[in-house]
Write a structure and sequence with these properties.
Helix content: 25-40%
CATH architecture: Roll
CATH class: Mainly Beta
Largest sheet: 6 strands, antiparallel, barrel
Strand order of the largest sheet: 1-2-3-6-5-4
Radius of gyration: 17 Å
Shape: globular
Number of domains: 1
CATH topology: Pnp Oxidase, Chain A
Number of strands: 6
Order of helices and strands: HEEEHEEHHE
């Protein structure tokens, strides 16, 4: 490649903060829609909630199914696929709503530092490795703290503070 050429996307290294694994057609059009519908009916699939957040550009409400994790009384959202659109939107908005059945809970978020993610990622992998383990490069709940810290930048984690 000569100096005047720009690197192709394949040649550009992706940092942990830029990582995003797109969902496949089945996940996007079948699985996520099914989980969202069940959640709206009040049927949780292992802690699933519907995340509702305003789009950072459009201002319109967007929704995604997410796994709400509780660790030592605190609630967390983990983005196993990386910096998704919901991650970008919730960062811009500073919060959103979690829906389960007819109950809608507004919340604010506090992003967890990479060095502090291990105590959240381990129980997340215990509960949802079968569903999301592929995004953690073969790691599971037995991974060392050091391995989880190294993986941290690839997986945004937010502590959820419900607004009463």
């Amino acid at each position: 490649m000569n100096p005047t050429q720009t690197p192709t996307p394949a040649a550009t290294p992706i940092t942990g903060a830029d990582r995003y694994v797109r969902p496949g057609w089945f996940t996007k059009h079948v699985f996520n829609r099914l989980v969202r519908r069940l959640t709206r009916l009040g049927l949780s699939v292992r802690g699933a909630r519907e995340l509702r957040v305003r789009g950072r550009r459009s201002g319109e409400w967007r929704s995604n199914p997410v796994n709400l994790l509780t660790v030592e009384g605190a609630q967390y959202l983990v983005a196993p696929r990386g910096t998704t659109q919901w991650v970008r939107n919730v960062r811009a908005a500073g919060g959103g709503e979690l829906r389960f059945g007819r109950k809608i809970q507004p919340f604010v978020i506090h992003e967890v530092a990479d060095a502090d993610k291990a105590p959240v990622l381990r129980p997340y992998l215990e509960l949802w490795k079968a569903e999301t383990g592929v995004f953690f490069d073969g790691m599971d709940a037995t991974a060392t703290d050091e391995e989880l810290v190294v993986s941290g930048p690839k997986h945004p984690v937010f502590r959820v503070e419900l607004v009463v």
